[in-house]
Structure formats: structure tokens, C-alpha cells
């Protein structure tokens, strides 16, 4: 017995020692990949010494003898801090995520291959302007120089993730940057997803289904099923479960994920310091590290500073010595789905405008970690690539014997969008910037501009040309064989939709619904945020940097202000006081709180939580009996729909009556029932004391690491979770997950914020949602997350002396000696 006990002790001690040794070894290899910012490297590809000066927040300031050397150093700096993220973005565009992640990434790879992101990027390379080709080449050489340093110096494979996801890190090519831009374009648009939703709503309720998405004054949409007489449509299916948000972010960006932003500016005559102001905050999915990376580069045309995306050699939002600019996804209607009939008995032929036609086909092999490769057949019609029914719920609207093809402005080669973006940051005036952006194809952008003489906005990007007889005007899928539905080509945005010299001296946009033309999109749910932003900017005659910061971080919900007086009109103060502890008293207390609320979605208040739960329960009660299983997939609030219902616009009040019951329910009854249901749910979560509830308890920002975020233990290190204010319709947008146990989890937001002051350029500020480094063990991995949460910023300066004074490290690059 004693001997057994001794051996048990020895085994226990041995296991402890072994565990400690393994932890120390893992720690050692992990920290080997942390770059030394105070080092000197001899590299091939530069003509003269280059300095990369890192400030306290790890923002690189790059100084070189030529633009080529500067772009080289930008590539090296991106790779030093975000190598794993860059390779994952490249894989997502190439359709090669499954090679490291395994079978779970197959749907993403399949869609990327069918969209042809990488193939079209390679075809676009030679179309770029000569100076842009040189920048792309120099940038790629800089990335590769760091990969060589990782290999030569045994620097932990460049990032700790590579130990868990073995990857042969191939050298960077110029086309890789173009592919990431294509992926960004595919991620920014949601038009394919919207078309599918409109078709499903029409199928679920042909008479009233479009009430959820119709614009005011819009002509009725065709009944979807009526476009395919005699065809058998799919039966509605209940969704298997809530989407795995982490899986959708496997590549940091995912097609049809959607993006937004605010862009606003004030000319010299509308500012206190007699210099133009501009603010911009691109909004994407929250990841760790975030999508954006702060950088300053010194070009021959002058210094440029702002937000970049690793893999793309351009400052996408920022300023130089003369000009400031910001980008906002324009959400034009840049995608159309076509339903193509497959010839019976001939699966390789489809019905074209002139009869039965052969699909254009090619075969590609998907390599999958841990299992055998899969070969897929990619088919195209005259309208574009065929998208299988498994993507975005497309199968629910496909008639039997039909497939769907996609026309998309970004789905072709000879795309000079990269030339436009690099030209933008070299421009010295609004006019030069507008000229540079004429090359833009996708993503379509509303570009906000400011210089010493004024402000303006330019709509940049290709617009599809639809025939006047198009069956749905681009709002829902249509038969692909009907000639009137086919695009007549692409055209640049008309000058009438841009304004380089507004009389008011003010411009402001949230991207969605930019302009009166229906070509610019059929979604106006964002109009509440647009109106709120415009109010904040127009309500002051004179602006300052601080007023722009306040507007950018505004958390008042215009939707709450619009809906609560309407929905609760017949509920406030209409009953006698109820006894404590009863559901009636809980409702009365909640309504009393809401009556005095100003609509601020403050994380420390209970009112935003009650409002959000109430509106979610209300919308579900309005639509569930009419739409059936489709109601489970309406994960966002449609405020225009609720407003139409409670105003009974066009007879929309009929949604309040439940089809399953004999009595005719009123909207007041439905509103009361929804509020009671919401309060019952919240009471079960937080107890009956309304005053103790907090919006931030459920509305927490989850910055998820796409590769490691679901791994036990490691997830606590790499993911960031923090309570946040704001909501889906606030200027400081905080998008909801919309499904699962906590549908109010904040998963989208402004991953970059910048405010540029041309009166005192050194007072300009910016911030990103996490930190500069993608290394979880770096102090720069999350050092800006708390600043971002509180609406604070770090300084932005183009003064070399200030950069050197704040330097925490200077990397020297020297031409390699032969």
C-alpha cells in the first residue's frame, strides 16, 4: 500500500511537471512570434533605408525614400502584426478555408469559388494603373520579406494560430490584395439576401407579405410564384437552429454579411475653428483582432494617415495634408438573382433567351483538412454563376427543375477599384478625389470628402442598367430567360447623385437609401438612422471636433422615439393601479419608466432592455400566424412595418388580428400581450425589480476570434466581451445577433472611427475596436477595446517630430547586401 502511494505521488508530481513544461514550451514558442519593433532587418526589395516608427498605441509611421519603399514597408508592418488574419482573408477569397479549418468551412469555400472572387481578382490585375501595379508589387514583396524573416529567425511561425492550424504560408502575390478587396465588396452588399427574403415573404403571404419590406409609395411587387406558372415550389421548412455566428466569421468577412457606416462633414463656414471637419466609422462584424489597422505612410504626394485593412495597400478612410475622406457602403441594388430552367433530361442545358443553351462549366477541387478532397462543378449562365440552393436559404424559393444564377457588379474582371482607392489617398482636393473614384466598380461607396475649400460626397461604383420592363425592378428573383430582365450592362454612377459643393456646407450619409433613385436600393429601414444623423448635424450652426465626436457616438434610438408613442398610445395610464407583484403592476411600472425615457440606449439603464424585448415580441406576434416558419428567420426588427401596422397604412392593421382565433384582435391588445411576454421573459432572467435591470447585461459586444473563438479555455484569452450602449438604429450602431438565447448580443459595429480636423490636423483622432496586434499575447491585442467602448480616441498626427517623440520602437529596414 505504501509503495502504491509513493508511486501515485511520483506520478502526480510527474504529471504536474510535464504540464508545466508543456505550458512553458507553448508560451515560449508563442512569444517567439511577437515582433521586435526595435530591430534592424536587411531585406531585398527596397532601394534605400526605411524607418517604421511605432507610437505608444503601436501605430506605424513609415518613412522611405520612394513610394515603392513605403508600400513595401506597409506590407511588412501589416504582416508583422496581422499575418494570420491576412492569410485567412486570402483563403476566404480563394475558397480555401477548409484546408485549415476542416469540413465546417466548406460552405464558405463553395460560395467563394462560385462567385469567382479570386479568379476575377487575377483577371483584374493587368487592368490596374501602372503606379498601382507598382504599389501592389512592392506591398507583396514587403509581406514576403517578413515571411522570410519569420523563417530565417524561427519566429514562432509568425503567429501562434499557425501551431493549431498548420499552414504552409505561401508568398503574397499582388492578386491576393485584389482578391481581399473583392471579398470586401461581396461582404458589403446584402442584396442577394434581401431578394430571397422578399420572395419568401411573397410565397408565405402573397397578399400582405411585402408589407414588411415595401418602401413608402413603392409600386406593388409581382407575386413571386406567379412568375413560374405550373412550377412546383418548395414547401416552407423550419430552420434547424440559430446560425453559428463564429462559423460565419471563419474568414473575417463573409459574402452577404452586410456593412454600413456613417460619413458626415462640415465646411469651413460651419466650424468653430474655420477648418473643415469630417467623421467616418465603417461598421462590420466585430472580430478579434478587428478588421481595421491604423497606419501612417509618407508618400511623394505627402503624408497619409488613417484606417487600413491588412492585405490592402491603401488608407481607406483618413486624411493627408490637404484632404480628408471617409467611405460608406452605398447599398445600391448591385445584385440580381435569376431563376433558370434546366432542360428536362439534359442537366447541362438551361433555357436561355434564344432557346436551350449549354451551361459554361468548370471543375475545381476543394481540399479539406482531415478528410478527402471534394471536386465541385461550377456552372454559369449568360446571367452569371449558378448559386446552389444551400446558400442563404436560396433553396426555399427554387421551383423544381430550376437553378439560380447571380448577376453582380463585382463579379467580373477588369475591375480597377484598387486603382480608385489608391488614387483617392493621393488626391489633394475634392475634385481630384472624385476623378480618382471614377474607376470604382465594387463595393459601391458614398465617399465623403473635405478640403480647405469645402465638403462634398461622391457616389462611386458601377450601377447595373435594367430595362424599363424588368419584371421586379431588381427587387426579387425573376425568370432568367425573359430578355427584359437581363442587365443591359454597367454604368458609372451619374454625376447628379454626387454633390461636391452643397449650399448648406454640410453632408451626411449612412449609406442605405442614398438618393431618390430606386437603382440605389429598395431598403429604407435605415432611414431612421439617416434622419437622426442629419438632425444632429443640421441642428448646430457651428460644429467643433467635439460635436462631431458626440454625433459619432450618439446612442439615442430614433426608432424607439418613433414607435413607442405609437405602439403604447392606448396603454399608458389607462388602468387603475394594480397590486404589487402582479403582472399588471409589472406592466404599469415598465410603462411608467418608458414614459420618461428619452430613447437613449444607455448600457446602464433598464428602459432600452424593456423596449428591445417588447419590440421583438411584438413583431413576432404580428407575423408568426401569417408567415409560419419564416418568422423564425426574421432576426432583425422592421420598424417601418410596425409603423405601417399601427397607423393602418394601406390596411396593414390587419396584421394585428390572429388568424388562429375567432375574435378579432386589436393592435392595442397585441401590444399589451407582447409587452407582458417580454416582461415575463426578462423577469425570469433578472428578477422582478425593474430598476435593477441593465441594457448592458445582455447587450454586450462580442469580439470573436474566428479561428480560436470556440475553443475551450483559449476562447477566454482571445475573445473580448464587454457591455455596450447603442442599438441597431442608433448613429453609434450596435447590430444584434438576432437569434439564440441572447438575441441582443452586439456583433456588429464601428470597427474603426475617425474624426479629421483640417483646421488643426494634429487634433484629428481615430480608434479601432480591439488593438493593432493580432497576437493574443501582445499588449496591443486589445489595448484600444476599452477606449472604443467608451467612445474615446487616440491622437492622429502627420508631424514626424510628434511620431518620434511618442515612439516605443523604431524598425529599420536596410537594403540587403549582395
UniProtKB/TrEMBL annotation:
This protein's UniProt keywords: Calcium, Hydrolase, Membrane, Metal-binding, Transmembrane, Transmembrane helix, Zymogen
BP GO annotations: antibiotic biosynthetic process
Gene3D superfamilies named among the record's database cross-references: 1.10.1400.10, 2.30.120.10, Glutamine Phosphoribosylpyrophosphate, subunit 1, domain 1, Penicillin Amidohydrolase, domain 1
Domain of life of the organism encoding this protein: Bacteria
Residues annotated as binding Ca(2+): 195, 333, 336
GO MF entries: hydrolase activity, acting on carbon-nitrogen (but not peptide) bonds, in linear amides; metal ion binding
Cofactor(s) the protein requires to work: Ca(2+)
Statement: the UniProt record of this protein carries the keyword Kinase: no
Pfam family, one: Penicil_amidase
CDD domains assigned: Ntn_PGA_like
Membrane-spanning residues: 7-30
Keyword Hydrolase: yes
Similarity section: Belongs to the peptidase S45 family.
Protein's UniProt name: Penicillin amidase
Amino acid at each position: 500500500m505504501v509503495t502504491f502511494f509513493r508511486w501515485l505521488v511520483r506520478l502526480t508530481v510527474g504529471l504536474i511537471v510535464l504540464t508545466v513544461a508543456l505550458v512553458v514550451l507553448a508560451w515560449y514558442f508563442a512569444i517567439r512570434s511577437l515582433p521586435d519593433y526595435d530591430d534592424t532587418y536587411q531585406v531585398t526589395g527596397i532601394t534605400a533605408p526605411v524607418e517604421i516608427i511605432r507610437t505608444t498605441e503601436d501605430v506605424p509611421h513609415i518613412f522611405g525614400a520612394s513610394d515603392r519603399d513605403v508600400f513595401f514597408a506597409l506590407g511588412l508592418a501589416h504582416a508583422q502584426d496581422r499575418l494570420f488574419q491576412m492569410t485567412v482573408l486570402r483563403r476566404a477569397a480563394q475558397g480555401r478555408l477548409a484546408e485549415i479549418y476542416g469540413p465546417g468551412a466548406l460552405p464558405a469555400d463553395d460560395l467563394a469559388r462560385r462567385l469567382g472572387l479570386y479568379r476575377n481578382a487575377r483577371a483584374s490585375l493587368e487592368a490596374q494603373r501602372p503606379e498601382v501595379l507598382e504599389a501592389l508589387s512592392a506591398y507583396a514583396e514587403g509581406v514576403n520579406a517578413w515571411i522570410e524573416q519569420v523563417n530565417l529567425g524561427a519566429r514562432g511561425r509568425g503567429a501562434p494560430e499557425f501551431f493549431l492550424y498548420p499552414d504552409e504560408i505561401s508568398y503574397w502575390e499582388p492578386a491576393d490584395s485584389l482578391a481581399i478587396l473583392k471579398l470586401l465588396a461581396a461582404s458589403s452588399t446584402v442584396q442577394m439576401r434581401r431578394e430571397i427574403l422578399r420572395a419568401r415573404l411573397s410565397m408565405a403571404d402573397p397578399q400582405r407579405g411585402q408589407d414588411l419590406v415595401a418602401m413608402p409609395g413603392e409600386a406593388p411587387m409581382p407575386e413571386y410564384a406567379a412568375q413560374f406558372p405550373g412550377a412546383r415550389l418548395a414547401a416552407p421548412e423550419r430552420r434547424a437552429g440559430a446560425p453559428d455566428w463564429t462559423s460565419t466569421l471563419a474568414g473575417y468577412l463573409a459574402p452577404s454579411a452586410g456593412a454600413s457606416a456613417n460619413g458626415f462633414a462640415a465646411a469651413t463656414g460651419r466650424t468653430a475653428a474655420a477648418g473643415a471637419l469630417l467623421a467616418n466609422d465603417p461598421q462590420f462584424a466585430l472580430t478579434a483582432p478587428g478588421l481595421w489597422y491604423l497606419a501612417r505612410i509618407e508618400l511623394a504626394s505627402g503624408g497619409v494617415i488613417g484606417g487600413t485593412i491588412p492585405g490592402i495597400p491603401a488608407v481607406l478612410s483618413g486624411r493627408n495634408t490637404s484632404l480628408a475622406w471617409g467611405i460608406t457602403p452605398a447599398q445600391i441594388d448591385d445584385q440580381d438573382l435569376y431563376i433558370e430552367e434546366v432542360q428536362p433530361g439534359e442537366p447541362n442545358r438551361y433555357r436561355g433567351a434564344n432557346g436551350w443553351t449549354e451551361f459554361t462549366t468548370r471543375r475545381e477541387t476543394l481540399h479539406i483538412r482531415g478528410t478527402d478532397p471534394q471536386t465541385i462543378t461550377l456552372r454559369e449562365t449568360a446571367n452569371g454563376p449558378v448559386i446552389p440552393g444551400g446558400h442563404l436559404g436560396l433553396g426555399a424559393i427554387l421551383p423544381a427543375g430550376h437553378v439560380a444564377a447571380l448577376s453582380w457588379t463585382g463579379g467580373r474582371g477588369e475591375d480597377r477599384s484598387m486603382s480608385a482607392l489608391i488614387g483617392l489617398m493621393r488626391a489633394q482636393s475634392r475634385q481630384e478625389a472624385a476623378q480618382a473614384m471614377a474607376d470604382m466598380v465594387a463595393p459601391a461607396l458614398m465617399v465623403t470628402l473635405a478640403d480647405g475649400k469645402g465638403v462634398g460626397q461622391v457616389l462611386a461604383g458601377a450601377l447595373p442598367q435594367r430595362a424599363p420592363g424588368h419584371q421586379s425592378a431588381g427587387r426579387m428573383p425573376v425568370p432568367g430567360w425573359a430578355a427584359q430582365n437581363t442587365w443591359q450592362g454597367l454604368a458609372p454612377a451619374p454625376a447628379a447623385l454626387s454633390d461636391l459643393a452643397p449650399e448648406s456646407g454640410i453632408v451626411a450619409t449612412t449609406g442605405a437609401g442614398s438618393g431618390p433613385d430606386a437603382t440605389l436600393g429598395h431598403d429604407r429601414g435605415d432611414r431612421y438612422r439617416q434622419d437622426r444623423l442629419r438632425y444632429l448635424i443640421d441642428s448646430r450652426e457651428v460644429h467643433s471636433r467635439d460635436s462631431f465626436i458626440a454625433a459619432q457616438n450618439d446612442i439615442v434610438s430614433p426608432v424607439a422615439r418613433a414607435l413607442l408613442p405609437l405602439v403604447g398610445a392606448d396603454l399608458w395610464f389607462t388602468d387603475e393601479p394594480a397590486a404589487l407583484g402582479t403582472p399588471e403592476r409589472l406592466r404599469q411600472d415598465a410603462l411608467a419608466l418608458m414614459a420618461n425615457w428619452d430613447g437613449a440606449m444607455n448600457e446602464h439603464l433598464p428602459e432600452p432592455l424593456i423596449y428591445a424585448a417588447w419590440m421583438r415580441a411584438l413583431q413576432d406576434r404580428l407575423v408568426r400566424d401569417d408567415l409560419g416558419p419564416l418568422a423564425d428567420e426574421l432576426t432583425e426588427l422592421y420598424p417601418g412595418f410596425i409603423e405601417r401596422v399601427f397607423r393602418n397604412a394601406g390596411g396593414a392593421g390587419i396584421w394585428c388580428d390572429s388568424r388562429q382565433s375567432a375574435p378579432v384582435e386589436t393592435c392595442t391588445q397585441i401590444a399589451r400581450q407582447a409587452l407582458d411576454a417580454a416582461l415575463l421573459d426578462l423577469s425570469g432572467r433578472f428578477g422582478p425589480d425593474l430598476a435593477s435591470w441593465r441594457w448592458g447585461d445582455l447587450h454586450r459586444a462580442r469580439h470573436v476570434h474566428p479561428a480560436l473563438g470556440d475553443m475551450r479555455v483559449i476562447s477566454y484569452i482571445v475573445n473580448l466581451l464587454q457591455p455596450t450602449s447603442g442599438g441597431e438604429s442608433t448613429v453609434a450602431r450596435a447590430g444584434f445577433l438576432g437569434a439564440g438565447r441572447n438575441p441582443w448580443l452586439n456583433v456588429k459595429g464601428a470597427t474603426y472611427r475617425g474624426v479629421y480636423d483640417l483646421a488643426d490636423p494634429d487634433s484629428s483622432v481615430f480608434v479601432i475596436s480591439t488593438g493593432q496586434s493580432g497576437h493574443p499575447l501582445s499588449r496591443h491585442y486589445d489595448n484600444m477595446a476599452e477606449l472604443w467602448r467608451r467612445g474615446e480616441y487616440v491622437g492622429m498626427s502627420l508631424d514626424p517630430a510628434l511620431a518620434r517623440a511618442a515612439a516605443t520602437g523604431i524598425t529599420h529596414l536596410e537594403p540587403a547586401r549582395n
